[in-house]
Design a protein that fits this description.
The complex is a heterodimer of chains A (599) and B (255). Chain A has helices spanning 15-26, 62-72, 105-115, 120-133, 149-162, 182-195, 230-247, 253-264, 271-289, 305-323, 339-342, 358-371, 380-392, 403-414, 462-478, 513-523, 537-540, 557-566, 586-597; strands at residues 2-12, 39-50, 55-59, 80-85, 89-92, 167-171, 197-202, 214-218, 224-229, 296-298, 330-334, 348-351, 399-401, 448-451, 453-454, 481-483, 494-495, 502-503, 526-530, 544-549, 576-580. Chain A is α/β, with parallel strands linked by helices and 599 residues long. Chain A is elongated and about 105 Å long. By secondary structure, chain B is mostly helical. Helix content of chain B is 76%, strand content 0%. In chain B, helix 3 runs antiparallel to helix 5 (101-128), helix 6 packs antiparallel against helix 9 (203-216) and helix 9 packs across helix 10. The longest helix of chain B has 29 residues, at 222-250. Chain B starts with a helix and ends in a 5-residue tail after the last helix. The chains are: A alpha/beta (599), B mainly alpha (255).
Chain lengths: 599, 255
């Protein structure tokens, strides 16, 4: 078995710098993944696993293939990450290593067999068998200097596949040039493929004398573009090549990804290319972050609160954990008092409302809502905002993780171009622990928090309005309710207005909006609302939650709904349930609420 | 780690290089006998001329200095051989994964071969100068491996570094002369002065003098020998850890 986990390998184009860096590493003086001048990533956050008995073809540039081969065989170690190989691994080579002119052929074959792991008896037997197989017994006592180099290389190659090993790594050694020994070689190769773990490293996918089970394509930056079945590899390779021809270098992703998405619907075959691109975005970003020792700014987040809770913050959590970034270096920028959502990530929090006047902030939000709230790129306003903030906290150089990274990454999932499960590869969901939860005095001790806004899964229709009106009227008679409506709008969701005795309107401003709503939800016995916006907070805080909807296949609701349902059942400490009210009456919902509250 | 495999590979690598090395010469294995003699005989002649052996009791200056030189040579071989041997097999190390401890054993084979030559020469010398046998000569069987391990404790740290920079390879022969003269090998340590101080704090003084005393049957300070050896033994254990870690880094830089 072979397991590569988040492997980074740095190489260098300048031999003098390489030697200096090696000396530093010898004496623990080098940062793990910091790139110095002339250094580059031979491998970047490479992960794959190969079970016992499987075969894998890896294609990519020569230095990438060489790095992988040497890591598997234990000839080198990664700069970070881990490589685990069960048993012995052999790099099959056609070069006659260890030869001296005065050695006899028998002594040389004995030496090679021993170096490759044979004991004394097996090594002698191996040397005799190989000489017999190639009918060169008469050369047993001849000196190497007197034997043809081609014969030596052929015998050395065959010895390296004949001596048993658990893992065989063929680095461009699979194509046999000598037709006389092809049959002998093929027989041994078939046996190896049947019983051993095999890794084949070649420049291209085609022209191989065998078909491996899996294939992996690695690009020049050392990141994996594809890992899957060998049959599909050629198809993906063609798709990616044509994608690159059409849209340019995979490196320029955000603009080319938009183009790709626009073209996607015309070309469903491009689906695999989209997965590759999504993976490339995430891996590239992770690579930039890993080893970073300076400040990292995450934000400024100015979009939907719901997306912030169930995509942005879990994505940040994944980035921070995977890159092993020092949390003290993180500076999260958001708005309206979302500080408590970022506490657990560590680091510092800066609220945009502390650096902008309320009118200025409101104007900015209104403009965003009008133009499209999702952040797909860094705008001029955000650039000015970042300059203002970094000047205030006296930071000049920093790494920026902008929300556009997350939006670009997950858009193919929201548009259902690729499976929703892919989100779980780039997010970490944990319950939210509040550090400074303050109970709001004027609210009842025991209450149900409610928030309903109109969205694709609960559209603004007369039926839905009547339903809500009746529901809330009856509910407020039987149980104290607190409405999360504040009268302030910070995203595109329009709240359903309901006159409730307990509301937040007169105590809310832009600065404390999300903080107050968070505290209200945290203190509620139950939360009832639509599955959108800040409503996502309730189950994350472990509150009993009941979501209602009337349309199932609209917007990104199916994706977030599927995501919530697929998270481990013990993730939500209290119950989380959903109800399609399209065929229900308000009284049915009330019964459901009573059941949840066990009244 | 399979010990028999390490010993077998180390022995084969030594045999391969040993045969190749001496096959390239006309006089072959004769050089192995002649090399230490050519080094020490002029030193003894000079030392005797300048009466370095004035205070030596119970044995001739020639025996005294030759034994000391041989023991020093064992120590120095143990420092030199690992890095020298590793560079000679560097192409194998670069392309074939085998237990790197075998390289240490291979260099030990060289050290032990040289030691065998030294012992033969020492035996001839004892016969020539009619040195009587002493029971303490048995202790020398413990002393010589201790000197070997002490030298190896430095040698195994230097070995991987020579894949990156050759300063040790070029510098060690130069350092030999310095070490030879700051250790009381060809002379008795003076009772005062700068040389006395240097000898007193030089651990080689005890590593060489005590086994020499055992071999030629004179009194010695065993405690300091044990102390120095303990320190080197500790270094050896740490050195092995460093060696294993360093090899996988240094191999990338083999040219």
């Amino acid at each position: 078995m072979i397991v590569f986990e988040n492997v980074f390998k740095i190489d260098c184009t300048d031999i003098d710098i390489a030697r200096e860096q090696a000396m530093r590493r010898l004496f623990f003086l080098s940062g793990k993944n910091r790139l110095r001048d002339h250094e580059f990533y031979a491998l970047q956050n490479l992960s794959f696993s190969l079970a016992k008995g499987e075969s894998l073809l890896i294609t990519g540039p020569e230095d990438v293939r060489r790095a992988i081969a040497r890591l598997i065989c234990g000839l080198t170690r990664p700069n970070s990450g881990s490589v685990e190989v069960s048993g012995s691994a052999r790099l099959v080579s056609s070069s006659a290593v260890g030869v001296t002119p005065f050695m006899t052929l028998q002594a040389y074959l004995y030496l090679i067999s021993t170096l490759l792991g044979s004991d004394r008896r097996s090594a002698s037997e191996t040397a005799r068998n190989i000489m017999h197989a190639f009918a060169v017994e008469n050369l047993a006592t001849a000196k190497i200097a007197d034997i043809s180099r081609d014969i030596i290389k052929k015998l050395a190659f065959y010895t390296s596949i004949f001596v048993d090993s658990d893992v065989y790594v063929f680095n461009e050694a699979l194509k046999i040039k000598d037709p006389e020994s092809a049959e002998l070689f093929q027989k041994r190769l078939d046996e190896i493929l049947r019983t051993r773990t095999v890794v084949i490293l070649e420049e291209t996918l085609t022209g191989l004398p065998l078909q491996p089970v899996k294939a992996m394509m690695v690009d020049a930056q050392g990141t994996s573009l594809y890992l899957g079945s060998y049959e599909s590899a050629a198809k993906f390779h063609t798709n990616l090549s044509s994608w690159q021809e059409t849209y340019g270098n995979v490196g320029d992703l955000s603009s080319s990804l938009k183009q790709h998405l626009a073209q996607y619907k015309k070309n469903p075959e491009g689906k695999e290319g989209t997965e590759i691109i999504v993976k490339k975005i995430a891996t590239d970003e992770l690579g930039k972050l890993t080893g970073n020792t300076g400040p990292v700014i995450a934000g400024p987040y100015l979009s939907d609160a719901g997306m912030e809770l169930i995509y942005w913050i879990p994505f940040l959590r994944w980035l921070l954990e995977s890159s092993r970034l020092d949390k003290h270096n993180l500076i999260a920028i958001s708005r309206c008092g979302a500080e408590q959502w970022y506490c657990e990530l560590g680091g510092k929090y800066i609220d945009i409302c502390d650096v902008m006047e309320p009118e200025e902030f409101a104007s900015m939000i209104n403009l965003r809502i009008a133009e499209g709230i999702k952040q797909f790129s860094v705008t001029e306003t955000e650039t000015r905002l970042l300059s203002k903030i970094t000047a205030k906290i006296d930071i000049r150089d920093y790494h920026l993780i902008h929300p556009s990274l997350m939006y670009n990454l997950f858009t193919p999932v929201w548009k259902r171009h690729i499976p929703a499960e892919i989100i779980k590869d780039y997010t970490i969901y944990t319950p939210l622990q509040l550090k400074n939860n303050r109970r709001i005095d004027r609210l009842p001790d025991d209450y149900i928090a409610v928030k309903f806004n109109f969205c694709p899964q609960f559209p603004d229709t007369p039926q839905n309005r009547v339903f809500l009106e009746d529901l809330l009227t009856e509910l407020s008679r039987q149980y104290p309710i607190v409405s999360l409506n504040t009268g302030l709008q910070v995203d595109r969701h329009t709240d359903f207005e309901f006159a409730s005795e307990n509301n937040l309107k007169d105590m809310t401003n832009f600065r404390n909006l999300l903080e107050l709503q968070t505290n209200v939800i945290a203190g509620a016995r139950l939360f009832v609302g639509t599955h959108s916006s800040i409503s996502y907070l309730a189950p994350l805080l472990g509150r009993k939650t009941l979501y209602i909807y009337s349309e199932t296949n609209s917007g990104i609701f199916p994706v977030s709904f599927q995501l919530f349902n697929s998270l481990p059942s013990d993730f939500f400490r209290d119950s989380f349930s959903t109800l399609n009210i399209s065929d229900l009456k308000p009284i049915d919902l009330l019964e459901e609420i009573k059941k949840i509250l066990k009244i | 780690m399979k010990w028999h495999s390490i010993f077998n590979i180390g022995w084969l690598l030594f045999k391969r290089d040993f045969q190749y090395r001496y096959r390239l010469t006309y006089f072959g294995y004769t050089w192995a006998f002649v090399r230490p003699l050519l080094s020490v005989v002029p030193l003894i002649l000079v030392g005797k001329q300048f009466n370095f052996g004035a205070n030596i009791q119970g044995v001739s200056y020639e025996v005294f200095s030759f034994v000391g030189f041989i023991l020093f040579q064992v120590f120095f071989d143990s420092i030199l051989m690992p890095q020298w041997f590793i560079r000679r097999i560097r192409k194998i190390v670069k392309d074939i994964a085998f237990p790197h401890a075998a390289i240490i054993w291979g260099s030990c084979c060289y050290i032990l071969f040289n030691l065998a030559i030294y012992i033969v020469e020492l035996a001839l010398l004892f016969v020539l100068f009619k040195v009587p046998l002493h029971p303490s000569m048995v202790l020398a069987l413990l002393g010589i491996p201790a000197i070997l391990i002490s030298g190896l404790s430095i040698g195994i740290i230097i070995a991987p570094i020579t894949f990156i920079y050759l300063d040790f390879r070029y510098g060690l022969p130069i350092v030999t002369g310095l070490l030879l003269w700051i250790t009381p090998i060809l002379y008795i340590s003076p009772e005062k002065g700068l040389l006395h101080t240097i000898n007193k704090f030089n651990p080689l003084t005890y590593l060489i003098n005590v086994p020499r005393a055992w071999l030629i049957g004179i009194a010695s300070d065993t405690q300091l020998f044990i102390l120095c050896f303990s320190i080197f033994a500790g270094m050896f254990l740490l050195g092995m850890k460093f060696y294993h870690r360093a090899m996988s880094i240094a191999i990338d830089r083999i040219v």
